[in-house]
Design a protein that fits this description.
244 residues, alpha+beta, 7-stranded mixed sheet, 12 strands
């Protein structure tokens, strides 16, 4: 009986060692297997995905992450070194018993990028399954494991300015900026003001949302059909009567 128990322990230990090797060298494969497993367990699909998003713009370099206190935060560090570990003094403190008190750090170096540095942690740091025995340069979409915690790393260096929204959409958005204006659109057709009062009211809406300047600057460049359409839209609005 004792021999059988010893054999079973050795078998399980061997399987455990195989699992660790597989995770170290093929962590992405195991992640895919776990994701497939989660599809059949709805309760697990609600687990929040962990991430670190590095941002580089002309004004600052900072991280956005949900590793701290399980809520999304923007983290700025003057030396551009974000330490990670169980120690409460760590920039990113994670309550993971498999993580060292001072486990690792993410560092940004000008003109080079972001690097993951391991502080000789007990259970190691891994990037896409490779152990960080020396600083590893991070890329957008890398998978990082520290102790028993795994998270995705994202980084962006560019910012794209989108074109301005067209006047036809701005007119529609005016009536969606607060609930009071939305309620105005549902008022009875019997409660309408004279045309002159409606004109004043529409002008006031324009002033409140900064559209007067837009119209004054661009109105003359509109075609006759566009001008007519703008006037028709606003003069046909339903306006609530003043409370008695």
């Amino acid at each position: 009986m004792a021999d059988f128990a010893q054999t079973e322990i050795e078998r399980r230990l061997t399987l455990y060692q195989v699992f660790l090797k597989l995770y170290e060298h093929h962590s992405s494969l195991l992640d895919e297997i776990l994701q497939l497993e989660n599809l059949s367990q709805p309760s697990l699909t609600r687990v929040k995905a962990c991430y670190v998003h590095a941002v580089v713009d002309t004004a600052a370099v900072y991280l956005i992450t949900n590793l701290c206190d399980n809520e999304t935060q923007s983290l700025r560090q003057p030396q551009r070194i974000w330490t990670i570990g169980r120690n409460r003094t760590s920039g990113i403190c994670v309550a993971d018993s498999y993580m060292s008190r001072r486990h690792a750090a993410i560092q940004h170096i000008n003109n080079q990028g972001f690097y993951l540095i391991d502080f000789n942690s007990t259970n190691g740091s891994f990037v896409n399954g490779d152990r960080a025995v020396r600083p590893i340069k991070l890329k957008d979409g890398d998978r990082i494991r520290l102790g028993n915690m795994t998270f995705d790393f994202f980084v962006n260096y560019t910012c794209r300015v989108l074109p301005t929204v067209g006047m036809d959409l701005l007119i529609q958005l005016v009536h969606q900026k607060n609930d009071h204006l939305v309620e105005m659109l549902t008022c009875s057709q019997n409660k309408q003001k004279p045309l002159s009062e409606k004109s004043d009211y529409n002008l006031e809406i324009f002033r409140n949302y900064g559209l007067v300047e837009n119209l004054e600057n661009g109105y003359e460049s509109f075609s006759s059909e566009q001008k007519s359409d703008i006037l028709d839209r606003f003069f046909s609005r339903e306006i609530p009567s003043n409370p008695s």
